[in-house]
Amino acid sequence: MTPVAQNLRALTLSLALAFLVASLGVGYWTLVASEELSHDPFNPRLVAATRDRPRGNIVDAKGRVLASSQPSPQGSAQRFRRVYADRSLAQVVGYASFTFGVSGAEGAYGETLVGQDPGDPVGQWRARYLGEHAPPATVVLGIDPAVQQAAATALGARRGAIVALDPRTGAILASVSMPNFDSGLVSDPRTEELSWQQLNGNKERPLINRVTQGLYPPGSVFKIITGAAALESGFDPNAKVRVDDPWRADPSWGAYAVRSAAKAHGDFDMARAYQQSENIYFAKVGLQIGGAKIAEYAQRFGIGSTPKVDLPAAAGQVSNSRALDRPTLIADTSFGQGELLVSPLQMCLLAAAIGRSGVMPTPHYAVEVRDAQGHVVRSITPGPSGQVVRPDTAQKLTQLLVGAVEAPGAFAFGAKIPGVSVAGKTGTAENPAGSPHGWFIGFAPANDPTVAVAVLIENATEGGVDAAPLGAAVMRAALGK
Amino acid sequence: MIRMQPLRRFGELRLLVLVALLLVTGFVAVVATELASFAPVQPVVPLLFIALAVALHLFLVTIGFRGDQLLLPLMLALTAIGLIEVERLASNLLLQQLSWCVVAAGVFVVAILVPRDLSVLARYKYTWALLGIALLLSPLLPGLGREINGARIWIGVGFAQFQPSEAVKVLLVIFFASYLDEYREVLTMKRLGPLPLPPVPYLLPIILMWGMAMVVMVFEKDLGATLIFFGIFLAMLYLATGQTSYTLLGALLLFGGAYLAYRSFGHVAVRVDTWLEPFAGDTRFSSGYQLVQGLFALGNAGLLGAGLGGGLPERIPVVWSDFVFDAFTEETGFLGGAALLALYLVLVFRGMIIALRAPTTFLQLLAGGLSFIIAFQTLVIVGGNARLIPLTGVTLPFIAYGGSSLVANFLIVALLLRVSDVTARVRGPA
Predict the structure, then answer these.
(1) CB spacing of A4 vs B372 below 8 angstroms
(2) Which of A260, A277, A443, B40 could form a disulfide with A264 if both were Cys (CB 3.0 to 4.6 A apart)?
(3) Contacts of residue B178 in chain A, CB cutoff 8 Å?
(4) pLDDT mean across residues, chain A
């Protein structure tokens, strides 16, 4: 029998340890998970700040007002209601509902829009204790109305996404995600309940920004990454590789084989392989340089890590296990199938990096915050995110991708623009959810691009061939052609 | 209580000045953010509370009380934080909470004065046990019991409502302290090979206790009280015997019962599933709504918090009783929440030190058990608020809105003070 005093000490020690664990738990939610919780769409905190006063405007690069607060009719619960101008930017601009929280730029720049810019602690203090709210600031997006209009028109009512950005700065010029929704209905207290229920229950998931959050197999656009890995591994792009459809590396593959889209038989070099998007060529190249190289280059181009964009984005994946360790998986991944998942934004960044000699920009929707008098409070210029491949590799790939658009018989012919050299690649992505998705990514002018684009059409009838002309339309709007 | 010359208690007084500063600062901060809805009662409440605190201090001075000087300021600091939070979250309940403070202070005074000798508590142990069981079962009586928010744990007479389980906790500790003091040698006799099993008759109270805990869980749907009762029981069994095996066996019994309940009773299953996946599905309509809103509040805290009045804790349903810890932490930050936990820990340490120094085993067990109640209850509700364990309807001691809990906790502190007073008289001042 131990003395009670000894038991008291042991019990006290255990309780003290339990208190330590409890404070660690509190620390997790208050410090570690804080950022994630503040972006939860159901978190009511940011909208609550503006029940009785106007939120700031969200405008595009030409000053067109995309979201503004208008006085409500007498007798409404809220003194202001939010009005949205461009439905094609529904997921980008977002909504601000008292019950359902915020999304898009309404959420990402929520503090700025209520006059409590994070860089202004004095303003936050005055708002809290003196009730003196700084006039809300205006958030300027990089969206170019002409490019946005072209992208929305090009995609039409088809499910999918189009994104265009300036590869020199990373500013997003156009961003369309279909199907979309009416932000005004979600933000209006009278309609938010019903509207939200319909949108949230909708199987086509209109609330998702497919540009940043939609994840798809990349199909043949991934061959740009395979090519980059091959060139930097010393692979000779002029070497002839034998292609015979269907192809198996060895009998262990069983019934499985890599198929050629053109049912090709012949010798291919890299230029012809890009023009005709030859799967067997890239499968053989991928196996030759190895799965580790392919995985490394996919990661260099940002697949599997969340892009540092100012709206919520998805990371995608190289494979379920993050490694490429089986020959069939390496072969499949090398031409863009396997277990790859990417977002349209990630593919647009891939095009931008190739166009800018291997320098990948950091994408961003907002470009400036302006105060109520129109003075620029801060410019959003995150700069490049890094040199992902050597300049000579990028230049060689640019040359090959110009061929993929402009050479006779090239698959991406639909992306041609008269008088401008266009580099691009189509993709047709097999997927478990129906007919293949159509991809096109590209940039122009090829030698010094001012626009990079990614087009994704879900369950397109003709795959990448459908997508290429949409890319051309968007780039023409950006180039003013 | 032996009457003596008045005895100065400067340590206590100095700390009470800090408590007054804390209360006034907190009230000014909260009221300043809601000047539009200013009511004249608001400045009166802190002044009345400070008067109450001074009265309790002078009372102890007048009777020549020789007990601990830290407990009263600690208790009043926590109660003051409770008043600030009630003003912040449910100011319409402020006067009610202040009235409960007065009632609790009355009970405190009675507990300090009335039992001339604490051994009275030990002598009538079976009376306390029977009273405890009667109180525990009283909510099940038709006409007397009331079901609120799905739990049948209240009894009501006219307008007033009372949660008997709060009093039962204290009665249980008194009963166990005396029972275990008497039989601790028998209970540690070795029988049945390696298993230290006590003779069967002495096991009866243990089995009875388990049965009671299950009754509370099944019929009154009060998971929190079940956990607290069983926790008290296991902790005291350990304090008396030092047998870790008893504690493990008891914990196994509890988890076994809890698992059966999880499989058989909807209200238990909902709690556990909510805990495991609070963010599952559409949290606006799911059972996780309250917990998720609480986590949002914590997430808004950061290191320094949103400032009193600057957060949005009022969006958490029943925040003033179930989630007051999250509300406090949202507005005072991680540092505020951690400081609050530290305040509880100091109180618990002080209680345990009183237990260590107590002259008899009965008093050691009594003080240890009472301190454990405060520690364990704090851990259960903070753990539930921070999603470390499933959420149970336990009140945050001294702070959460509610009269029964406040009265019971004042009683606990009064008894701890009595034990320290006895020690000081036996051993001379610390």
Answers:
(1) no
(2) A260
(3) none
(4) 89
How distant is the Cα of B142 from the closest Cα of chain A, in angstroms?
Answer: 39
- A372 and chain B in contact, CB less than 8 A: no
Extents of the domains making up chain A? 219-364+383-479
Q: What dihedral do alpha carbons A175, A179, A183, A184 form, nearest 10°?
A: 130
Q: Which CATH architecture has domain A219-364+383-479?
A: 3-Layer(aba) Sandwich (3.40)
DSSP β-ladder status, A366-370 and A138-141: antiparallel
Q: Note the pLDDT of residue B1.
A: 47
Task: Please judge whether B352 and A40 are an interchain contact, meaning their C-beta atoms are less than 8 angstroms apart.
Answer: no
Is residue B228 within 8 A of residue B216, CB to CB? The reply is no
Name the domain count of chain B.
1
> Which of B292, B310, B379 is facing A18, going by the closest CB pair?
B379
Tell me if B258 is assigned to some domain.
Answer: yes
Average pLDDT, 10 consecutive residues per value, chain A (481 residues) = 86 96 94 77 68 85 93 72 93 87 85 75 63 80 96 95 96 96 88 84 90 94 96 94 88 86 90 92 94 95 93 91 90 93 97 96 94 86 93 95 89 89 93 88 95 95 87 95 82
Tokens of A361: 């920009």
Choose the mutation target among A4, A9, A19, A40 for the interface with B, i.e. most B CBs under 10 Å.
A4
How far apart are alpha carbons A144 and A407 in whole angstroms?
Answer: 31
Contact A103, A95 (CB under 8 A): yes
pLDDT for B275: 85
Which residues constitute the domain of residue B252?
A: 118-264
> What distance in Å separates the CA atoms of residue B162 and residue B156, rounded to the nearest whole number?
6
Nearest to A1 among B242, B303, B352 (CB): B242
Q: Are B240 and B356 in contact (CB under 8 A)?
A: no
pLDDT at B376: 96
Distance from CA of B111 to the nearest CA of A (A): 24
Taking an 8 Å cut-off on Cβ atoms, the answer to whether A128 and B344 are in contact is no
Interchain CB distance below 8 Å, B364 and A16: no
